[in-house]
Amino acid sequence: MTDIGPELLDLEVGNVANGGFCVARHEGRVVFVRHALPGERVRARVTDRTKNFLRADAVEILQPSPDRVQPPCPFAGPGRCGGCDWQHASLPAQRRLKAAVVEEQLQRVAGITRTVTVEEVPYPVTDEMPPDPGLGWRTRVQFSVVDGTVGLRRHRSHDIEPIDECLIAHPGVEMMGIERKRWPGTVSVEGIVSATTGDRLVALKGGRKARVPRLDVPVRLVRGKETAPDKQVPYVREEVSGRLFQISGSGFWQVHPGAARLLADAVLHALEPKPGEIALDLYCGVGLFAALLGERVGPDGLVVGVESDAQAVRDAKFNVRDLPQVAIERGQVEAVVPDLEFGRADGTGRTQTKRGGGHHRGARVRGADIVVLDPPRSGAGRAVVDQVARLADRKIAYVSCDPATLARDLAYFSERGWTLETFRAFDAFPMTQHVECLAVLVKG
Fold first, then answer.
1. Annotated catalytic, 166?
2. Which of 21, 161, 287, 365 maximizes the CB count within 10 A of its CB?
3. Which stretches of the chain score pLDDT less than 70?
4. CA distances from 184 to 94, 166, 221, 292 (A)
């Protein structure tokens, strides 16, 4: 490698790293390079220097990889929009890169050697199909706004890239024309569409001077720091396995149109819930897994969902209203789970849970047959892992969108006597570094 100037380096690019980078070296220092691919020789502009490593953007490809393609989006590239990490790689190459990252994290952090295949997430057949594979999938897009102009954040920056179209946005989001409107007084605008029902809404944050342009969809406007959701919050409905789920405002839901159904099927297949069993759904959101588990365990079983977000809890309770064997508890998982007691159904077919002491109908059980947890990107952490490892009896399904925190938590589970039975990875976020994973654990 030759230093050809104060900001430009010629680099031989090595393996992929977690975070949408590849690794190179310059004078013994690690260089994390974006917009490059393994095996390439590139000219890279240094964007950040630390004591131990450099960050750089590949601005000229001197020797391209056979996996390199022309990025479809005109706003992708060095110094531009930071939303997509791998538009310069073919879709099969993107999945191989993500698989390599997951394998490396499992081995290095958890000591688990596993061959990983990142599976394609099928796009449901609808009237609004994407123009090309890997595009048009994102059903929830949050745009930043500066001086009324909409854009997307640049990588590791508060600056925005003004855009007039996002190619990974679902066609239903683009139909709203968010990028082509002015949003004075607004901080952010989120376009939300349901690929299964066609429901749409816009959620935005802004101050008192926020002005909403004319739209033909419901609008959710939050001014300042919201402490309690409105009584009537606009929502979209999503359909999974014949059930409708209500998601209010900008509440969490899988952004790929096929991801919720695929993950739900994968979790149910892995856990094999049986009639009469007790199940926990931790970080349950609006109750996707809780509802489907409730159907499987039946009226003699019990499912307890735990969620901290107030609006998500309201939605979850609404979504499981026809399943008396499903209870939703609000609070932080690490605070709620130790205080739960589980009661199996009695002769009336009713099932109860109670936090703290008290009397229960039927037998009291301090444990659960199966557990599913789908924590945020920061992972579950040691305290929750310890609780789940003690409570679970048969199987644990851990859904994660971050291989690093997943591998950390799998190491914690291993310390508690749980081993990895099966592992799957899904390309739920094409063109980006992100990957959805499902780890299934058993005792011993």
1. no
2. 287
3. 1-6, 126-131, 224-231, 342-366
4. 38, 21, 13, 42
User: Which residue do the tokens 């396995």 mark?
Assistant: 241
CB-based contacts of 141, cutoff 8 Å, min separation 6? 166, 169, 170, 173, 178, 190, 191
* Residues 281 and 267: beta-carbon distance below 8 Å: no
- The 3 state secondary structure assigned to 50-111 is CCCEEEEEEEEEEECCCCECCCCCCCCCCCCECCCCCCCECHHHHHHHHHHHHHHHHHHHHC
Instruction: Express each pLDDT in 387-438 by its tens digit.
Output: 999 999 999 999 999 999 999 999 999 999 999 999 999 999 999 999 999 9
The predicted-structure confidence for 16-36, as pLDDT tens digits, reads as follows 999 999 999 999 999 999 999
- Tell me whether residue 155 is exposed, middle or buried, using C-beta atoms within 10 angstroms of its C-beta: 0 to 12, 13 to 18, 19 or more: buried
Phi and psi angles of residue 91, each rounded to the nearest 5 degrees, phi first: -60, -45
Is this prediction's pTM over 0.90? yes
Residue 225 neighbours by CB under 8 Å, 6+ apart: none
Q: Which of 73, 84, 166, 401 is catalytic?
A: 401
Residue pLDDT, tens place only, 68-88: 999 999 999 999 999 999 999
Query: How would you write 325-358 as a 3-class SS string?
Result: CEEEEECCHHHHHHHEEEECCCCCCCCEEEECCC
Contact 325, 301 (CB under 8 A): yes
